[in-house]
Amino acid sequence: MTRLEIPQSDAIVVGSGPNGLAAAIRLAQAGRKVSVLEAADTPGGGARSAELTIPGFVHDVCASVFPMAVCSPYLSTLPLQEYGLEWIFPEIPLAHPFDDDSAAVMFHSVRETANGLGADGPEYEALIGQMVPSAEDLFASILAPLQLPKHPLLLASFGLKAFRSARTVSRAYFRTERARALFGGIAGHAMLPLEMLTSAAPALALAVAAHAEGWPFAKCGSQNLTRSLVSLLRSMGGDIITGFEVQSLNQLPQADAVLLDVTPRQLLRIAGDRLPHGYRRKLEGYKYGMGVFKMDWALSQPIPWRSPECRQAGTLHLGGTLDQISLSEREAWQGRVADKPFIILAQATVADPSRAPAGGHTAWGYCHVPNGFTGSMVEQIENQIERFAPGFRDCVLARSVMAPEDFERHNPNLVGGDIAGGAAIPSQLFFRPTAGMYRVPAPGIFLCSSSTPPGPGVHGMCGYFAAEAALSSALS
């Protein structure tokens, strides 16, 4: 396809991940003509599904569980249900099994969760429960760039806990290993060592999301979230063009604004000749985080967890104690792999049987590995599952393996297998990739990926705020 075949548009969005689509929809809402260009044959970026193992078994290639989408101050306002999206909420959002066959469980109810934590129940309510009634205001504040807050006391209360390490918070609030491990496992989503400052923030946000809304799946697969966003955009006059790889801005026709759903590495390649030297140097110093090694399984039956609660949970954290989880994450951050890696596992078919033939099930699990890791973690991942579900391997009909290089091949934004768009270290937390955030120092160019605030997660807010920046300047 040539530039002549791209419809004349006020704005062009490069990349059709959730942030790119959110940006395009916001621009279309403002009455702008928008075209979205996607290099892959199907839109979605990290929100795609495919039959990775056996025909009839639908697997989510990357993003799969969507607490931030249902809590998003922008995506939650869109009428996506009218365009085919249906959220499926597992009976139990999260379970964390232990070697004694018990499990710490995060229920939808704060009180029920606290009751299951025994002596640490009151502390859990104090740490998490007090924020749940104000969840809508909280997410409006934390899923935004640094700005004068509308709810300063709420944000300050969150910040006093969030800008600490997960290990510090877990040990300050909890006395039992069950509660400490539960919190540490949630913090493991941060893709940071649990000793690092700010590693507590994702755990707090994800726990509040679980109680305020839930940790849902998209019925029939993550691709349906993308389909609903695409359908909404097209209903507003927007265009989606797949199979068009943008290697240089020179390929694009004239437009008032170009929004790039890419990370700094791709921005340098696509727009490098238009960028000032100092800005290029800052992009070159941008730090990517740990990679991901992921497996998908087609199963003949549900996973035989020893803990009954695990059989009802949509998401499971397999890592044992807080110390074991901390070791796993620290090893990956320092360039090594753990013998017993911390595993994030999802089993969508416990709540959404449409993803497999009758009687069949699907599951996926991943661990963090050094960025660009080229080895195999197949045995270690399956050993961790067998640790809490003996006989798991006997249920496996087929496997799919995605190493870091496979993720990057599938989606160039996933540099070295980093699914977060860059490490959420303190220096890249508020001003990412630079202090300019969405504004690229070149006329009409904006960045709208998870490499901008508020960072990783399927919430669309990076795209929304980039669109707002474009509307206030290039498209004003």
Q: Explain this structure to me?
A:
The longest helix has 13 residues. The chain has a 7-stranded mixed beta sheet with strand order 7-6-12-13-14-11-15, with helices on both faces. With 476 residues, the chain is an alpha/beta fold. α1 runs parallel beside α16. It has 2 domains: 172 residues, FAD/NAD(P)-binding domain (3-Layer(bba) Sandwich); 253 residues, Alpha-Beta Complex (Polyamine Oxidase, Chain A, domain 2), CATH 3.90.660. It is built from 16 helices and 16 strands. The model has no long low-confidence stretch (mean pLDDT 95).
Helix content: 25-40%
User: Which CATH-level-2 architecture of the largest domain?
Assistant: Alpha-Beta Complex
Instruction: Flag low-confidence runs.
Output: none
* CATH class category name of the largest domain: Alpha Beta
Report mean pLDDT, rounded to a whole number: 95
Biggest sheet, open or closed, and with what strands and sense?
A: 7 strands, mixed
- Count of extended strands: 16
The CATH topology of the largest domain corresponds to Polyamine Oxidase, Chain A, domain 2
- Count up the helices: 16
Compute the gyration radius: what is it? 21 Å
General form: globular
The percent range for strand residues is: 5-15%
Number of domain units? 2
